[in-house]
Specification:
Structural class: mainly alpha
Radius of gyration: 24 Å
Keywords: Membrane, Transmembrane, Transmembrane helix
Transmembrane segments: 69-90, 135-155, 176-199, 211-229, 259-281
Distance between the termini: 57 Å
Number of domains: 1
Number of strands: 0
Shape: globular
Order of helices and strands: HHHHHHHHHH
Length: 301
């Protein structure tokens, strides 16, 4: 009689199939080519509108600044990175947190281009002077996050959540189910944002603010699920700390200029310090020592 491994849940099989397709070389080329085409089409749309060559139905909605094409391309690039974040959640909680920081740094860079998008062409110093400090703040914040992320990834020491292989596999299956739910919500949010902007002619909803709010709940859910397989203090604290860093990023998205970059950098610095402490716990196997045996009739001090 031979033992057969338990079949993976259907959600895990679906996740694996989607991940394999998404991370294939063909998918990367298609996405990259699509980004280039959208960028060029956006530039052409702006230029045709400036020259009065657009159909009357499209003319009222067209942007006047060529930097609008950069904003569109960055928005789609961020969407691509978010999908990578969702798939990475099943592999590593720490790496998924790093992906959140990467996306936030790209959001800061996108905000720098948004400042240009509100200006008239040709750009004159008198008009841009008031936004230079804001742009420098976003760029500096993105650069600080980029540097701290290099240290963050270098310090990662991935360790199994549980010594039991079945528990580890069960935890991975649970994370894949969470990731699939996030993916469905993300795609729905992207569709609604596109519908609002293109069809309904409304300002797009605060998409990335909503995304990071969802990530907070996803992080908390992963913390609670992980407690089923390991109640070790360092694991619970590390996973809870990851959720706190996501909260800081969410606050940064709603914060005013200057404070948003500072909060983002603080979130990454917190995660970096958390990683150092986690590694110290793991290396020293810091555990609470057992209480000494008491003699019959004696009381603990």
């Amino acid at each position: 009689m031979t033992n057969t491994a338990p079949r993976a849940p259907r959600s895990s099989a679906l996740f694996d199939a989607l991940e394999a397709r998404w991370e294939s070389a063909l998918a990367r080329r298609v996405v990259a080519d699509g980004l280039v085409l959208v960028f060029l089409a956006s530039l052409a749309h702006v230029e045709l509108g400036r020259r009065g060559l657009l159909p009357p139905a499209l003319a009222p909605a067209h942007p006047r600044n060529h930097f609008h094409a950069v904003q569109v391309a960055f928005y789609l690039l961020l969407g691509y990175e978010v999908v990578g974040l969702v798939f990475g959640l099943a592999r590593s909680v720490a790496n998924a947190a790093g992906k959140q920081f990467e996306i936030f740094s790209l959001i800061l860079l996108r905000q720098s281009f948004e400042a240009f998008g509100d200006l008239h062409e040709p750009i004159v110093w008198g008009e841009v002077r008031g936004t230079v400090l804001e742009m420098l703040s976003d760029c500096a914040g993105a650069l600080v996050i980029f540097v701290l992320l290099g240290l963050y990834y270098r310090l990662q020491r991935h360790q199994p959540l549980s010594p039991d292989a079945k528990d580890r596999q069960s935890f991975i299956h649970a994370k894949k189910a969470v990731a699939l739910t996030l993916l469905a919500l993300f795609l729905g949010g992207m569709g609604w944002a596109a519908l609002s902007a293109v069809v309904l002619r409304r300002p797009p909803p605060a998409f990335f603010e909503s995304l990071y709010t969802l990530l907070i709940f996803a992080d908390i859910l992963v913390v609670l699920i992980s407690a089923r397989y390991s109640s070790t203090y360092r694991v619970v604290f590390r996973n809870s700390g990851v959720a706190v860093s996501t909260v800081l990023l969410r606050l940064a998205l709603s914060a005013p200029v200057f404070l948003n970059a500072l909060l983002g950098a603080v979130a990454v610095a917190f995660a970096l310090a958390l990683t150092v402490a986690y590694n110290l716990f793991a290396a020293g196997e810091v555990e609470r020592p057992p209480a000494p045996a008491l003699a019959p009739g004696s009381l603990a001090p």
